[in-house]
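4.2 Preliminary Data

To establish feasibility before requesting continued support, the project team ran the inverse folding procedure on a target of 232 residues. The structure was first converted into the token representation described in Section 3, and no sequence information of any kind was made available to the design step. The complete token record follows.
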């Protein structure tokens, strides 16, 4: 217990002193995860909206696939991306393996099903409520689609936040395709694993505290958005 307390004290000092190595790892983590979530949102939101407006029976199997992929083990996603980007893989000539772009790709693959699935549910719920009324009032198909998406925007935002929460704490996939290279592909989760193995508990705890703070902010934002959705 004494060692844990001493580690927390040292970790807090590292954060207060704005340790340069620690900050570099945090900033890279946020850059990779934000880029991945933006990419996933650009794919997942339109796809989820399209599927949500289709009759459920016509997209049943695709919906089951998306729900299955929402629980995709990160190491499986990492393995697939690794094989695609390796020297013998179809994307090997691009030399993306062990780069931040490979990590963004892996996190994007993990985030897309979550954003797509939650957007699908949000749009489907609003679609039932709004379509008949909008058509009765003479709205065009484009206006109906826009109205549904606008009414579901808070739930869609919650989907994006949930996607970010999924990838920012991910370790398996990014370690496989990023290589945990210092100054290049080392992010918070992979650094925590490495520093713990080295016995550098103070630095690992410092990163862990920051990761917990980020997770708390994400969850607080998610609860606030979900509360606004329920109130409306």
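Position-by-position output of the design step:
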């Amino acid at each position: 217990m004494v060692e844990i307390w001493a580690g927390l004290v040292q970790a807090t000092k590292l954060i207060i002193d704005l340790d340069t190595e620690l900050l570099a790892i945090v900033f890279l983590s946020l850059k990779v995860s934000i880029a991945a979530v933006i990419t996933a949102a650009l794919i997942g939101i339109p796809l989820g909206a399209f599927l949500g407006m289709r009759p459920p029976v016509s997209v049943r199997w695709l919906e089951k696939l998306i729900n299955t992929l929402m629980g995709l083990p990160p190491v499986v996603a990492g393995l697939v991306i690794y094989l695609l980007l390796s020297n013998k893989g179809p994307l090997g000539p691009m030399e993306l393996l062990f780069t931040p772009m490979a990590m963004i790709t892996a996190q994007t693959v993990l985030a897309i099903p979550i954003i797509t699935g939650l957007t699908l549910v949000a749009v489907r719920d609003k679609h039932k409520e709004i379509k008949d009324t909008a058509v009765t009032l003479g709205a065009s198909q484009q206006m109906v689609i826009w109205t549904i998406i606008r009414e579901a925007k808070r739930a869609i935002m919650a989907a994006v936040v949930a996607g970010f929460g999924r990838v920012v704490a991910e370790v398996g996939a990014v370690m496989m395709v990023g290589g945990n290279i210092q100054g290049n592909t080392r992010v918070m989760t992979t650094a925590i694993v490495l520093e713990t193995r080295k016995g550098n508990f103070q630095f690992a705890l410092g990163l862990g505290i920051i990761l917990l703070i980020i997770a708390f902010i994400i969850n607080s934002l998610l609860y606030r958005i979900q509360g606004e959705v329920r109130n409306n």
